[in-house]
Amino acid sequence: MAVSATAVGEPPRLPVQWALAGVGAAALAAGALFLGADGWRRGVLLLVGGMLGVSLYHAAFGFTAAYRNAIVRREISGVTAQLIMLAAAMLLFAPVLAQGEIFGQRVVGAVAPVGVQVAVGSFLFALGMQLGGGCGSGTLYTVGGGSTRMLMTLAAFCAGGFWASLDMPFWRQAPGWGSISLARELGWGVALPLQLGVLAAIWFGLRRWAGGTDQRPLWGDGFTWRRLLRGPWPLLLSAGLLAGLNWVTLVVAGHPWTITWGFTLWGAKAAAAVGWDPSTSPFWTGGFTQRALDRGVLEDITSVMNIGIILGALTAAGLAGKFAPVLRLPPRSLLAAAIGGLLMGYGARIAFGCNIGAFFSGVASTSLHGWLWIVCAIAGSWIGVRLRPWFGLTN
Q1: According to a count of CB atoms within 10 Å of the terminal CB, is the N or C end of the chain lower?
Q2: DSSP E strands, 24-159
Q3: For the chain, what are the domain ranges?
Q4: Region 281-305: what's the mean pLDDT?
Q5: Residue 74 to residues 68, 208, 216, 233, 374: CA-CA distances in angstroms?
């Protein structure tokens, strides 16, 4: 189906929007049936990705704008919603990870080493997301929602992740202290209240920072069935759904929600298609990475969920009547998208994930690297926000 895009991004007429929503929903259903024929897990995870895409799109739930609003305008509602999301995920994850299995399936948290590469990677990622215009999840749901600029960010994101994979031997030599799980070191009875206490302290600090600034309501002035279908959704609803869907991912996949591994894999497959030899890279030789590169994209769980997010966002954008791709984009804006995407891809790879895999899933798993990630990401965001006007981007 052809959808005309205009220079100003005028949405197509409503019947076309509904047709687009139908295409997205049908693709999710057909994809789930196709993948489910070879085992139910990937089919379910495609649908989980679709629900994540709808939740992200309908609430415009992103990390990039949330941090920018807090830095520039002291508007903290987006960050507050993230704190609630993290607290809910911690409470959901704790009994499952403490047990180590559920419904007969082994489960593991998103625990990764703490070290210089996480600090550098998260700083680069956050700087890049302010230039690129979206985080890991934000890039996917805005692409699904019709943003042509974010296609540039996504392509550069994949290239940056692949570039970093080639440099991994260097980064593995950087100073580090190994994987530190607070639950493993202190026990869940201490680690969970400790992390919840830290979130509460951050919230109190943010309240003082915000002062009397007007804030976006977390719930709004009412929620109807029409809003459920067409949006916009309250931040609080999406925060709860994202926490719940991350828990579902943990139960079904055996590990929490991740995003950027899929981008690195897509970049490597594109490089291999134009002649790159994977045997020249230690990262892609042997083990999980080589098997993933040798198999089809739809056999990779992270890729399946990423595709689901795009299709879910397409469905939500059509239902909202807001699918409106723009063809004419300022060159400086495209340059910022390319630079931002490269920084995000490179940073996420060396930091063991992005705002989802490293921060959200990492903190919910009580991994210390998740806390280091967000501290350094705030510094990167602060600089990125101040660089945006150089590229003609408003704050």
Answers
A1: N
A2: 101-102, 105-106, 113-115
A3: 14-194+225-391
A4: 95
A5: 9, 10, 11, 22, 18
